[in-house]
């Protein structure tokens, strides 16, 4: 998503430079580590301020500041240099202001408070941002998008096209999606071909879950992933606690019907339709998979609707319009 944002800003006529490669993330909730990173960030603020002084930059944009990885650089640099400060996909989590991430959660809140504008990618994030925003701050909805202006023709698919699943193989929510997939595959015809794209530290556990029901493709390049979408019949990914999921955009752009649970965030990037409830579990997912596999006409219709949805709402042109409309408040006309 960060690379897509840089592409959109460039397509909108703006020059984009990476001001700092400082990494603030604490994934374990270690207060000592957070204190060390906060202290280390002070030197980076000095360095970046000196580097950007008289540079001619018109605004600072930070992507994805949150309680595990707050922006420890941007607010201070902008305060020193008088630059507008904008955030994209920043989140507020005030329940984290106590507990193991308290220091970082406070910094994430402070970054949100300092921003002139915050772009949110999902309505769920937008609710807290709007509720807690300072009076002067603007909160703008930026739909998740693919970094392309057009979509290629939808390929024709053969009668033996596989069910495609794709996701990182790691413990936690991703593994729970794979667990649901394993339960779903037990409820669809055993001869159905299934392909799984992805890799990660939990791959042995995922392979043990799915067994010989799936062909494992490993980590794929963008071109290889496009080929996997092109030969598939449908895309199956439950989406346990996904923020939104770029794979859903990619699959729909390739003309694939998507089978996913009706979850916040996920539903915001899917072509409007009837998706199984979370409470329906694997049985609900399997009903949708089986119905689509049994009806090529319905499968093609849903895939075509998905392409129209992506073309209208989730390509780079829409993002450029949203970004430039807001940036025009702070920077001159792009060159």
UniProtKB/TrEMBL annotation:
This chain's protein is named: Glycosyltransferase family 4 protein
Q: Which CDD domains match?
A: GT4_PimA-like
- Superkingdom field: Bacteria
Q: Which organism is it from?
A: Arenibacterium halophilum
